[in-house]
From TrEMBL:
Domain Major facilitator superfamily (MFS) profile: 14-465
Transmembrane segments: 12-32, 52-68, 80-99, 105-127, 139-161, 167-189, 201-221, 227-247, 268-292, 298-320, 332-350, 362-383, 395-421, 441-461
Keywords: Cell membrane, Membrane, Transmembrane, Transmembrane helix, Transport
Keyword Protein transport attached: no
GO cellular component: plasma membrane
Topology in membrane: Multi-pass membrane protein
Database matches in PROSITE patterns: MFS
Matches recorded under InterPro entries: MFS, MFS_dom, MFS_trans_sf
SUPFAM superfamilies in the record: MFS general substrate transporter
PANTHER family: BLR6921 PROTEIN, MAJOR FACILITATOR SUPERFAMILY MULTIDRUG TRANSPORTER MFSC
The organism of origin for this protein: Amycolatopsis endophytica
Protein name: EmrB/QacA subfamily drug resistance transporter
Major place of residence: membrane
Subcellular location: Cell membrane
C-alpha cells in the first residue's frame, strides 16, 4: 500500500465515495425511462428520436470505458475519476436545464463520457484499497450491490421525481451529490501518479477501439429500428475496426491494451463468464417488466414496486451474506452457487402463464435470481481482478465494465428480438398468450446463457488452475488467497 493510500476508516469513506458516484451513473442509465413521455411532450421530441435520450448516453459510455481505464493507469486513477465525476456533474446540470432536444442529447452524450471515465477506474481503485481477503470481500459486496441494484432503484427514483417535481430533477439531483462526493474524494482517495503517458500512449489504438466500441454499441441499441442492411453494415465496420485494433496491439511498442493481460486465465474466464451472465440478466429485467405491464396489466407504479424485492434481496446478500461465505468457502464455490440460483430462477420463469399473477408466478423466481446475483457478482469481480498487476488495475477495471455494457446491450437486443419474433409468428392467438410465449422463449435462452456461464466458470476459474501472468508462467493463485496489490 502506498504512503498516500488511505487506511482504516478513511478507506471505507473512499469506498462510499466510489460507490455513490457509481450508483449515480448506473441510475442515469435507467432513471430516464419513466420520464421519457414527459420529456417528449415538454421538449418536442418525436417518438422516433425519443430513444436517443437513452442511446446518447449508452454509446459514449460503452465506447469509452476501455480507453478511460487505461488512462487511469497512465495519468492516475484518482485524476481520471475526479475528471469524469466533474464532467458528469456539469453535464447533469446542462441536462436538467435543457431547453430543446439538441441540448438534452448533447448533455446526455457528455454524461456518458464522464460516467465512463469515473466508472472505468472505480473497480480498480476498490481492489487497491482493500488488499486483504476479508476486507476486499466486503468491499466488493458493497460495490457489486450498487451496480446490480442501481437499475431497479433508477426506475423507482425516476417515477417519484418526475411525478413529485418534474423530469428536470432526475438530472438536477446529481448536482449536490456530485459536488459533495467530489469534495470528499479529494480528501480520501489515493493520490496515485500513474505510469505516465510514455508508458503506453497508443493514440492510434485508442481511436480504433473507441470507434469500434461506439459503433458496435450504436449497432446493438438500434437493432430494432435499423434495417437489416444498415445493421449488418455498421456491425461489419465495427468488427473490422476491432480487428485492426487487435493487430495494432500486437505490434505497438506501447499498446493501449497489452494482449498479455489475456494470458491471465482468471481475467479472461471472469470476463467471458460476466458477458454470458450479464447478457441474460439485462434481458431478464427488461422482459419481466414487459410481462408485468403487458400481460398482467400492472400499473407503472405497481411494476416499479414489484421490482423492489429483487433489489432488496441483492442488497441483503451482497452486503451481508456474500462477504462471509466468500471468506469461508472461496469465491469460486460462491460463484457457482450463485449461477445455479440465477439459472434456476430463469428456468422457473419459463413456466409463467398468460393468466398468472405476480405473487404466484414472478416473486419467487425473481427472489432466487436476486439471491444468485448477490452471491455471484462480488465473487466474479474478485476472481477477475485478483490476477491484475498493480499497474494494470485501471485497464482490467475498464475491460470488466466494457464487457458488462456491451454484453448487456447485446443480450437485451437479441432476446428482445427473439421474444418479439416469436410473438409475431403466433397469428390468431390471444395477445396475452402470444406475448407470454415470446417471453418464455427468451427466458429459455437466458437460462442457456447462464448454464454456459457456469461451464466457463467451472473450467477456467476453478482453484488450482494456473493463473498465468506475463513473466510468471505457471503461477497459481489459491481461491481464498487474494494478491496483495
Amino acid at each position: 500500500m502506498s504512503l498516500d493510500q488511505p487506511a482504516g476508516r478513511s478507506r471505507w469513506i473512499a469506498l462510499a465515495v466510489l460507490s455513490a458516484q457509481t450508483l449515480m451513473i448506473v441510475l442515469d442509465q435507467t432513471i430516464v425511462n419513466v420520464a421519457l413521455p414527459a420529456i417528449r411532450d415538454d421538449l418536442g421530441f418525436t417518438q422516433t428520436n425519443l430513444s436517443w435520450v437513452v442511446n446518447a448516453y449508452a454509446i459514449p459510455f460503452g465506447g469509452l470505458l476501455l480507453l478511460a481505464g487505461r488512462l487511469g493507469d497512465l495519468a492516475g486513477r484518482r485524476r481520471v475519476f475526479l475528471a469524469g465525476m466533474g464532467v458528469f456533474t456539469l453535464a447533469s446540470l446542462l441536462a436538467g436545464l435543457a431547453w430543446n432536444p439538441e441540448t438534452l442529447l448533447a448533455a446526455r452524450f457528455l454524461q456518458g463520457a464522464g460516467g465512463a471515465a469515473s466508472t472505468a477506474v472505480a473497480l480498480g481503485m476498490v481492489v487497491r484499497l482493500f488488499p486483504e481477503p476479508a476486507g476486499r470481500a466486503r468491499a466488493l459486496g458493497t460495490f457489486s450491490f450498487v451496480q446490480a441494484a442501481g437499475g431497479s432503484i433508477g426506475s423507482m427514483a425516476g417515477g417519484v421525481l418526475t411525478q413529485a417535481l418534474s423530469w428536470h430533477w432526475i438530472f438536477l439531483i446529481n448536482l449536490p451529490i456530485g459536488l459533495l462526493a467530489g469534495v470528499v474524494a479529494l480528501r480520501v482517495l489515493e493520490n496515485d501518479r500513474g505510469l505516465g503517458f510514455r508508458a503506453g500512449a497508443d493514440w492510434l489504438g485508442a481511436v480504433l477501439v473507441t470507434a469500434a466500441l461506439m459503433l458496435g454499441v450504436y449497432t446493438i441499441v438500434g437493432v430494432e429500428s435499423h434495417g437489416l442492411g444498415q445493421t449488418l453494415g455498421t456491425g461489419a465496420v465495427s468488427l473490422v475496426l476491432l480487428a485492426a485494433f487487435l493487430v495494432r496491439q500486437s505490434r505497438a511498442r506501447d499498446p493501449l491494451l497489452p494482449l498479455r493481460i489475456f494470458a491471465s486465465r482468471g481475467l479472461s474466464g471472469a470476463n467471458l463468464t460476466m458477458a454470458l451472465l450479464v447478457a441474460a440478466m439485462f434481458a431478464f429485467q427488461f422482459l419481466v417488466v414487459l410481462y408485468l405491464r403487458q400481460v398482467l396489466n400492472l400499473s407503472a407504479q405497481a411494476t416499479g414496486l414489484a421490482m423492489v424485492p429483487i433489489a432488496a434481496m441483492i442488497a441483503l446478500v451482497s452486503l451481508a451474506v456474500s462477504p462471509r461465505v466468500s471468506t469461508r468457502f472461496g469465491d469460486f464455490r460462491v460463484l457457482l452457487a450463485g449461477l445455479v440460483s440465477i439459472g434456476g430462477g430463469l428456468a422457473w420463469l419459463t413456466r409463467v402463464p398468460a393468466d398468472g399473477s405476480y405473487a404466484a408466478d414472478v416473486l419467487a423466481p425473481t427472489l432466487a435470481m436476486g439471491l444468485g446475483f448477490g452471491l455471484a457478482m462480488p465473487a466474479l469481480m474478485g476472481l477477475g481482478m485478483r490476477d491484475a498487476r498493480p499497474e494494470d488495475t485501471g485497464l482490467a477495471s475498464g475491460l470488466f465494465n466494457t464487457t458488462q455494457q456491451v454484453a448487456g446491450a447485446l443480450g437485451l437486443s437479441v432476446l428482445a428480438v427473439l421474444a418479439a419474433t416469436r410473438t409475431g409468428s403466433l397469428t390468431g392467438v390471444p395477445a396475452a398468450e402470444a406475448l407470454t410465449s415470446g417471453y418464455r422463449l427468451a427466458f429459455w435462452v437466458g437460462t442457456g446463457l447462464v448454464a454456459a456461464a457456469f461451464v466457463v466458470a467451472a473450467v477456467m476459474l476453478r482453484p488450482g488452475v494456473a493463473a498465468r501472468r506475463t513473466g510468471e508462467p505457471g503461477a497459481t493463485v489459491p481461491d481464498r488467497a487474494l494478491p496483495q496489490l
